[in-house]
Specification:
The chain has 168 residues and is α+β, with helices and mostly antiparallel strands. The chain is built from 5 helices and 7 strands.
Length: 168
């Protein structure tokens, strides 16, 4: 079910730095289902796990398909520290999934069947902006909420210049 579009122009309500993680996989050999299917199914499991515990720091995500072979997720995080903590936590699924992948790779069982990648970006406050016109909350706006565009400025330069209120 798709969300209802919000009329007019909005912008993401993000405050402070934003951490963006792009993470994905590529199916190199479709016939090697037993290699790529567990990888494909691991990400939704991790996202469900993170959704159950907002304190872990995942603000939101968007699942995307680049091609029939390539799937990825754009994730928005509160901080790189919370991202690192989740990735390394022994009680979370990511750590077990990554250990399993490493064991299979060392044993030569993953070679060439499935590709994995990730990129992490820290966008300091003042180095990102957004605008959504007649859109349901999406991307950073879905992760942090939206506000009327006028509250941050109608021009991109104004939205880039926005600073959150100092903590007092």
């Amino acid at each position: 079910m798709s969300a209802k579009p919000l009329p007019g122009r909005t912008t993401a309500a993000a405050e402070g730095d934003v951490v963006v993680l792009l993470i994905g996989m590529r199916i190199n050999h479709f016939w090697a289902v037993h290699h790529w299917l567990p990888v494909l199914l691991a990400m939704p499991r991790m996202l469900r796990e993170l959704a159950r515990d907002e304190g872990r720091g995942l603000l939101g995500h968007v699942l995307l398909t680049a091609s029939p072979r390539t799937y990825y997720v754009v994730q928005y995080w509160e901080s790189k520290e919370k991202l690192y903590a989740y990735a390394a936590s022994p009680d979370m699924f990511h750590r077990r999934a990554w250990a399993m992948m490493n064991r299979k790779e060392r044993a030569g069982k993953m070679r060439g069947h499935v590709g994995l990648w990730h990129e992490t970006y820290i966008a300091p406050e003042g180095s990102y902006e957004s605008i959504y016109a007649d859109m349901p909350p999406f991307g950073l706006g879905a992760a942090t909420g939206v506000v009327p565009v006028e509250s941050r400025g109608r021009a991109a330069a104004d939205r880039f210049a926005h600073r959150s209120a100092p903590e007092g």
